[in-house]
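1st attempt posting a full record on here, be nice pls
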Amino acid sequence: MHTLPLHLEAGSDVRQSLEALAREQGATGYVLSVVGNLSAAVFQCPGKPAPTRLRGELEIITLSGTLSPEGVHLHLSFSDGDCRVWGGHLEPGTLVLRGADLLVGFLPVAAPVSPSPAPDERGRLNAGASAASAQPPARPSGRNRPAVRQTAVSQTAASQAAAGEGAQPRLEIAVLPGCPWSARALRMLRTLSIPHRVIRVESDAVRGEIQQRSGSSSLPQVFVDGEPIGGYDALAESHGRKELEPLRLG
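the predicted structure (as tokens):
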């Protein structure tokens, strides 16, 4: 793990800043420590239909959770001017008052292992093959990168695929970067340990494709076995009816 200090200036959105950092690093990480204060806190309490918003001079007590390029799952606690403590899932709109300093730890990204070159008839390694395998893979340029990035974001799903228990998750979710409802849907899937594949909608072409598949222009959109079930509300209702149980691991 390598650690990275992060200073947030006044007015910075805490959640969006951490999401941007995770995308920039391209790795999974954790918030290790934080000190600072807030002018506004937006957090989701258990069982509440909508986030709670508080304003004032608020002192951060803790911020913990995970970060990845596909999203964050963070818990915030803080105190108000009367020393009352509040907390819940960190949501967009949580703003720094004068400043905040965080220490974030990122896990190393595993490099792919190249197959060993085959020996020739004398048992010697082929020099050309060895040199070729030593060259790092070329990174695609910005113009050649695909507009749709599909990533299995559940670590348990990745482990399952590696074990040969099913390479493709049954559930797909199309999300809009920066959309709070997309972030909530992803958080629900991670919390329930449901393997899933993420489709990041970052172009009009991709949005059109998702709209054609789902019959809806809103995001997120969830598909199970290729069939659309709806957005965040439909996902939450399916969870309430225990219709997602067959998709969970363990």
